[in-house]
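Below is how a single chain appears once it has passed through the pipeline. First comes the sequence as given, then the structure the pipeline wrote out for it. We keep one example in the README because the format questions we get most often are answered faster by looking than by reading.
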Amino acid sequence: MALAKRIIPCLDVKDGKVVKGTHFVSLRFAGDPVELAKKYCDDGADEIVFLDISASNENRKTKVTLARKIARGMNIPFTIGGGIGSVEDARVVLTNGADKVSVNTSAVRNPKLVSDLAELFGTQCVVVAIDAKRSDKTESGFTVCISGGSRDAGIDAIFWAKEVEKRGAGEILLTSIDKDGTKDGYDLELTKRTCSEVSIPIIASGGCGKMEDFLQILRGENAADAALAASVFHYGQFTVRQVKKYLAANDVLVRV
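Resulting structure:
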């Protein structure tokens, strides 16, 4: 039996506020994270992802406070990422209400972290975020970027997706830096090629601008298991419920 496709709003949190940019820069204010989370929960979101993009070294305390506040008002799973650099960082967030943690730069620098998290907390709690952009220096044509998309790690993105699956990642949050914030649609080539190479769920991210973009990324061969979006929801272009009704009308299995 096929699993329902998931619609996941993403909240990039900086200094306690939700922001959104283009290509990971030019950030602008989008709202309060707890208020937006409740709104999306009430509107039928399947999950929510919070990414702490603050540069502060004290962001563990920030994430703990955020996790507690969100957990009190939510009845759907949520993931917290950004600055999860150790097993202890993950433990603190998970024990304060988060259902999953997302690791990115820390996993590239220490791949064993993925294995350790999976062993201690279970694969269902471990999301590996991969920020990828096009490159002529890798076999697949896509390279992994770290540090908020600012540094090319020199790792083939498809290779890295297969590696984190082997190490116990439960799913992959795959973001196209080239598409981020452009509203030109998801990177179909990046997503479909990755989906064809791994068996764990893929959350597609970066570039959603219209209803059809969700349909393209979630339907057909090697389709993503979930679609993540930010600005189209934050700024009221359409609602989660409207997206789900549209997908259901186009023969995509979703929870409505």
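The CA atoms of residues 225 and 248 lie 15 Å apart.

See the next section for the split statistics.
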